[in-house]
Amino acid sequence: MVSQDIPNSMKKFMAEIKEKCGQDHAKWAENFQACFANTWVTTVKQLPDGTTYLLTGDIPAMWLRDSVAQVRPYLVLAEKDPEIAQMISGLVERQFQYICLDPYANAFNEAANGAGHQDDQTKMSPWIWERKYEIDSLCYPIQLSYLLWKATGDASHFNETFVKGVKEILHLWEVEQNHEQSPYVFERETWRKEDTLINNGKGAPVGLTGMTWSGFRPSDDACLYGYLIPANMFAVVVLNYLQEIFTDILKGENLIPQITKLRKEIQTGIETYGKVKSSHGDTIYAYEVDGKGGYQIMDDANVPSLLSAPYLGYCDEQDPTYLATRQVLLSQENPYYYEGEYALGIGSSHTPKHYVWPIALAMEGLTTPHKAEKKRILDLLVACDGGTNLMHEGFHVDDPKQYTREWFSWANMMFCELVMDYFDFRVKQ
User: Which end of the chain is more exposed for a tag (fewer CB within 10 A), N or C?
Assistant: First the structure.
């Protein structure tokens, strides 16, 4: 049953998807309706000041990254629905308010209530739920602001808050090109090594590469090597977005030289230091490097991932280096690739071994040109929903009823985006 609490445009769109699914894909439609409505009904909170706060799901905080991915599929409706457009615009405003408060933080409280990891050894505040610095936490709000503009033609969210936040981001990324000069440290008293940084909170030593450093992956797990290649790829993409925004809309700010220089240095760093050889001798992208010869061949389920490079807009899905990388990622050479009785795909250090993630499966479908492969993955996802009609964080390849996180909005919306992609509904880029 479709909730009465969602906009009419969403109801009509869900009915259209159901019609396109027909009897052949009735289970897709059932899960799509549950997932598409669930995010709006359970995570979206529009506040009295006109901004929007989005819960990540079963954690009472808003992640800059997740909150973008949670609403991205709604952009296809924003062009003709002012209510949805306003909700997303309000989210952009709140995201950039948070970035102005602290660009190193990844997750925030609705108010300055002191919830979250206040005992972490870093520069906390009552607004911050968690302060694990991740490049993608800054990329995603820029991406959403750009995609909202492209979907609606409205540029009103490119306001004073946006400009101030962008300046904070550019400065931080420049500082983190030489992490030795960074003020950022992070340590947590924990048994779980992935939740803290070594070297007195500074992370493993890195060389200078032109890329910008990240303390943590989009899984919120610590980087082993400080230059996270897919996150730097995402930075290149959103710097291109900023170049367009400050050329066409915000012409008086004179940030183009800074944006252009930073984008060129990061991209040169990726192409110079981010490529390694696979076990078969093919040139591929590493997941992380340190600029001193250290690197890691792997991929993680969370986005940005190497698998997601064409989805993000860094390269074409037929790019030879990407295809060689993809072949490695979807093989045993990736330590987080699992195969079992019910599923095969990419998992994460964030969840137990042999758990694959619907986010990664959806991304595998979104980055293939083959419709039959998209169908295979959609069939797999609905068959492995644990009987809930919703997606989860991860599930066991030999028993889909063993899963993590009953409620995970990001995964729900990635499933929706793949269904939409199958029927040629795509967000304007």
Answer: N
